[in-house]
């Protein structure tokens, strides 16, 4: 009888642990995300983008993950970007703020 009880408790404990691990978010580094976004942003947004920095740690959730990045252009101006990403990895971004002074093109090297 005690063997059966121990087996049932083990199964319940294993199922609880599996459920807990399955509901926790996966972590991605901002550095890896930025490396993935840089060529895409250069091609679709602005070819003068030199660097991209994203949030240090991005928690990938079951539904929608949100994170922010900062893209810096060759002339020193920057763009703030806000992204949402689904569990399959499809990213949708929007430019939320642009440091784009009127003399930007005169300052380009």
Describe the oligomeric state of these chains in a short phrase.
single chain
Let me know the largest β-sheet: 4 strands, antiparallel
Task: Find the structural class using helix and strand composition.
Answer: alpha+beta
Within the largest sheet, what's the order of strands?
2-4-5-6
Annotation, overall tally of beta strands: 6
Describe this structure in words.
- It is a single chain.
- The chain has 109 residues and is of the alpha+beta class.
- The chain has one domain (25-107).
- Helix content is 38%, strand content 38%.
- It has three helices and six strands.
- The chain has helices at 2-23, 30-44, 104-107; strands spanning 26-29, 49-54, 57-60, 64-73, 78-86, 91-98.
- The strands form two sheets. The chain has a four-stranded antiparallel β-sheet with strand order 2-4-5-6, with helices on one face. It has a two-stranded antiparallel ribbon with strand order 1-3.
- A hairpin with a 4-residue loop joins strand 4 and strand 5.
- The radius of gyration is 22 Å and the shape is rod-shaped.
Structure summarized in a few sentences:
With 109 residues, the protein is α+β, with helices and mostly antiparallel strands. It contains 3 helices and 6 strands; from the N terminus they run αβαβββββα.
Sum up the structure in keywords.
109 residues; alpha+beta; four-stranded antiparallel sheet; two-stranded antiparallel sheet; 3 helices
Helices and strands in order, then pairings?
Layout: H1 2-23, E1 26-29, H2 30-44, E2 49-54, E3 57-60, E4 64-73, E5 78-86, E6 91-98, H3 104-107
């Amino acid at each position: 009888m005690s063997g059966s009880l121990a087996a049932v408790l083990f199964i319940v404990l294993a199922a609880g642990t599996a459920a807990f691990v399955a509901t926790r978010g996966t972590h991605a580094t901002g550095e890896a995300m930025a490396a993935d976004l840089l060529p895409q942003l250069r091609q679709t947004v602005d070819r003068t983008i030199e660097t991209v920095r994203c949030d240090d740690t991005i928690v990938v959730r079951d539904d929608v993950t949100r994170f922010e990045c900062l893209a810096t252009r060759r002339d020193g101006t920057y763009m703030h970007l806000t992204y949402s990403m689904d569990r399959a990895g499809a990213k949708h971004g929007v430019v939320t703020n642009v440091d784009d002074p009127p003399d930007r093109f005169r300052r380009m090297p």
